[in-house]
Write a structure and sequence with these properties.
The chain is α+β, with helices and mostly antiparallel strands. It contains four helices and six strands, in the order αββββαββαα. The chain folds into two domains: 97 residues, Ribosome-recycling factor (Topoisomerase I, Chain A, domain 4, Orthogonal Bundle); 68 residues, Gyrase A, domain 2 (2-Layer Sandwich).
């Protein structure tokens, strides 16, 4: 059951990381911090090569520790799927996020729903794998029918807990997106 909890936690963590990269209309440094840039010849996450901060609700400022990396940061942002043009003033890079339209907010909320469904599918796949192993143990005579039923109930309780987490994270993100 500990291995099960670990695998389910990984699904939740991956789901949260995917949502972290979805733009909500507010400037959030997390949107760019994991972009990979070429930093002194090595692929490096942006958060390890620059200070990233939101100066207001619509603007992110990226201050690289080395001014030589401004061009590489600008290139990485342009190649990403953010859809935002970086402004390089020679010192810092500014990203100005446009306000989201109602239609775009609904599209993003739908994308969040799709990501949540993907997480639920992964949880179901994990449940099926563990359910099969419980049934296999019963067939091999390692556990009795009562123990099998107890383990299946325990498994379902854990699965329900993680499905609830996915639901809560999804609702929270959708509220964040729909808030103007």
């Amino acid at each position: 059951m500990q291995e099960l909890e670990k695998k389910l936690s990984e699904v939740i963590e991956k789901f949260q990381n995917e949502l972290k990269n979805i733009r909500t209309g507010r400037a959030n440094p997390k949107v760019v911090e994991d972009l990979i840039i070429e930093y002194f010849g090595a692929p490096t996450p942006l958060k390890q090569a620059a200070n990233i901060s939101a100066i207001d609700a619509r603007t992110i400022v990226i201050s690289p520790w080395s001014k030589d990396s401004l061009v590489d940061i600008e290139k990485a942002i342009n190649e990403s799927d953010l859809g935002i043009t970086p402004i390089n003033d020679g010192e810092v890079i500014r990203l100005t996020f446009p306000a989201l339209t109602e239609e775009r907010r609904k599209e993003i909320a739908k994308l969040v729903g799709q990501k949540a469904e993907e997480a639920r599918i992964k949880i179901r796949q994990i449940r099926e794998k563990y359910k099969e192993s419980i049934e296999k143990e019963e067939k091999e005579g390692k556990i009795g029918e009562d123990e099998k039923i107890r383990q299946e109930k325990e498994l379902q309780k854990i699965i329900d807990k993680y499905n609830q987490k996915v639901e809560e994270i999804q609702k929270e993100k959708e509220e964040e997106i729909m808030t103007v």
